[in-house]
Amino acid sequence: MNEILMYGPIGEDFWEPENSITAKSIMSQLADMTGDVTVRISSGGGDVYAGIDIMNALKNYDGGEVTVIVESLAASAASFIAVGGADRVLMRASSELMIHRAWTWAEGNSDEVAKTLKDLERQDTKLANIYAAKAGGTVEDWLAAMSDETWYTADEAVAAGLADEVIAEKSTAPEPAAKLARRRFKFANRAAAPPPRPVHRSGIGDETTTTPSNGQEEDTVSILNQLAKELGKKPEDVQAALSGFFNETVTVSGEVEVTYPAETAIAPTERVTVEPTIGDTSAAGDEEVPAAPQNAAMEATGLGLAFAPGTVPEGWDFTVDEATGVVTAKAPAGVEVGDVVEATVKVNDTTDVPVSFKVRSLSDDGEDEGEEPAGDVPAGAPANAVVTVPRAVWDEYMADRAKYAAQLEADKARELEAKIDGHIRDGRYSAAHRGEALAAYKADPITAERVWGALPKNKAVPVAELGHSGDMENMTTLERMRAKAAANRKNKKKETKHV
To answer: What is the domain class of 2-214 according to CATH?
Structure first.
């Protein structure tokens, strides 16, 4: 049987060179094969271009059918190798598939960073087209799913159209040797990630919306087919037997009220989190019975509420957790103390719920009002993430920090001056240019190193020995000849004077 194993990072990898999966290695294996090929993948991804090479090598294999089996994980580059390179994509029951936008490191000026951004956007569109070609839907749908960094279970991948079938556990494939690659992902695995968003796919007849694991039609058909296969029955017989289960309708009555605290204190540049209060105002006779859940985030998720930013004050950093409604807000530096600023949170795309903030001074620690200390505290941070200290201790800490920063700057200045003085000692340029070189390095050290630091040694100011006189035995042949010639000329002048 023709079999290719892809257990490791895609492309050359510094950390795992022995496990790297290169396009050259895959192409050399395919060149020696005829007939159907099975590719087993367990990879956290890697280089985009290497992944495209491998995908095209599998896609263009004309010796037979290519079947990819996702043994444990097909993430990032490994996901589009599987989706775009195989005739059939099979998922082990416990395997996962992840898609996200391309990423890279960037440095340089604004033009260079802008070019890098365009390159990334081009890569994203290219990858979204690969997923859309397999699963249907629009490129915009898949770009949105990639932005979310979407993790799919095996069943969810099949329901979304990225894979064709879930197969029984059989392989003892190791965990993907890509733990280092996982560190750059938003989520550690499918269990830590939110559910995949709906993707509209066009098939025969009307367009249907596929949302994995949410009980919609596509999921029901997938479950029925799998269950019928395991029981040895026809899908329609299984559906008839379970019709009561599949046709059950659950009705949610009443309204859900979402509110935020009347005013949340916030200081300039401070970041705070605000949780919603969620209550059930369903009518019971003629009375309203409010319910005060112990965990508002859990209640929001259970009720299927969706949250999004509404009106955002200018200059504010304002985010809303779409599942729980928790608001994270950071005030800009220029807000006036005492101002009351109002934002809104949109609930289920229909209702705008106000969220108010009252600006306090940085010197006000808020103890009288039971506020948390100022600082960038992310949503969901543990209780020990913030420490309260006496003002005197805090002032001392800030003063020490300022001294440390000043010392660092002084050390950097000394190192730079030492570098410039070294250039002068090497004869790269004269001491007259010391100030000019220092200014150039302070303004743009990279360019200065290319210009001033690249000057050849011993050119502007010779510092190496050009010659010497003295003991004839220690001179070179040329030096002895020159010394004798000079002595002869001197003796001739003396003889001429005495004539």
So the answer is: alpha beta
8-state DSSP, 258:
E
Report the predicted TM-score, pTM, of the whole model to 2 decimal places: 0.40
The answer to whether 50 and 28 are in contact (CB under 8 A) is no
Bridge partners (DSSP) of residue 320 are: 327
Q: How far is CA 41 from the centre of its chain?
A: 23
Distance CA 188, CA 31 (A): 36
Neighbours of 174 (CB within 10 A): 11
Q: Which fold has domain 256-385?
A: Immunoglobulin-like (2.60.40)
Secondary structure (3-state) at 273: strand
3-state secondary structure of 397: helix
Residue whose C-alpha is closest to residue 63's, from 106, 4, 149, 18: 4
Residues 6+ apart with CB under 8 A from 35: 2, 63, 64
Query: Exposed/middle/buried for 346, CB within 10 Å: 0-12, 13-18, 19+?
Result: middle
Question: Where on the phi/psi map is residue 25: left (φ > 0), alpha (ψ -120 to 50), or beta?
Answer: alpha
Q: Tell me the pLDDT of the chain (499 aa) as tens digits.
A: 799 999 989 988 777 788 889 999 999 999 999 999 999 999 988 899 999 999 999 999 998 999 999 999 999 999 999 999 999 999 999 999 999 998 887 778 888 888 888 888 999 999 999 999 999 989 999 999 998 888 999 999 999 999 999 998 665 555 544 444 444 566 556 565 667 766 655 443 344 444 444 334 444 555 666 666 666 667 667 666 665 444 444 333 446 788 889 889 988 888 889 998 887 544 444 444 444 444 455 455 556 688 899 889 888 899 998 888 899 999 888 888 888 999 999 988 888 899 999 988 876 654 444 444 445 555 555 655 667 778 888 778 888 888 888 888 888 889 999 999 998 888 888 888 889 988 988 888 888 888 888 888 876 555 555 555 555 555 666 677 777 777 777 776 655 554 4
